[in-house]
Amino acid sequence: QLQLVESGGGLVQPGGSLRLSCAASGFTLDYYAVGWFRQAPGKERELVAGITNGGSTNYGNYGDSVKGRFTISRDNAKNTVYLQMNSLKPEDTAVYYCNAQISYRDIYFSYWGQGTQVTVSS
C-alpha cells in the first residue's frame, strides 16, 4: 500500500529549529507535487509550503515571515521531502502533515501522511 510517513517533530524552545521529513514508501515522489500542511487544535488545516515535481516552491499566503523562516526541499534519491523550520514561534505549534498529489487529465490522486507534532514552548 502507498504510504507517507512524517518524522522530525518534537518540543523546542522559541527561536529553535526543527527539520521535518516526509518519506514515501510503495511509490516514488519524483512526479508528485508535495505540500506541508499544519493543523492546530480547533483550527482548519492550512498550507505551509509546497514544492512541485520540478522543484519550484511556494509558501501560500504566509508572506515573507514564513518564507524567511521555513524552507521546503526535496531529495528524490531518498524519496523524501523536507521542511526546515527556523526561528520557531509558539504560534507554530501544530500537527504537521505532508501531502503528495499527481494528476492526469481529469484524474488525480492525493495521499496524506499521519502527521508529526511540533510544540514550541518555553
SSE map:
Elements: E1 3-7, E2 10-12, E3 18-25, E4 33-39, E5 46-51, E6 57-58, H1 63-69, E7 70-75, E8 80-85, E9 94-104, E10 107-112, E11 116-120
Parallel strand pairs: 2-11
Antiparallel strand pairs: 1-3, 3-8, 4-5, 4-9, 5-6, 7-8, 9-10, 9-11
| Biggest β-sheet description | 7 strands, mixed
Report how far apart the termini are. Answer: 40 Å
Binned, the helix content reads under 10%
State the shape. globular
Total of DSSP H or I helical runs spanning 4+ residues: 1
Secondary structure category = mainly beta
Q: If you average the pLDDT, what whole number results?
A: 93
Strand count: 11
Spans of 5+ residues with little confidence (pLDDT < 50)? none
Report the sheet-strand fraction: over 45%
Rg estimate, integer Å: 14 Å
H and E order: EEEEEEHEEEEE
Give a nutshell description of this structure.
The mean pLDDT is 93. The protein is mainly beta and 122 residues long. The chain is 6% helix and 53% strand.
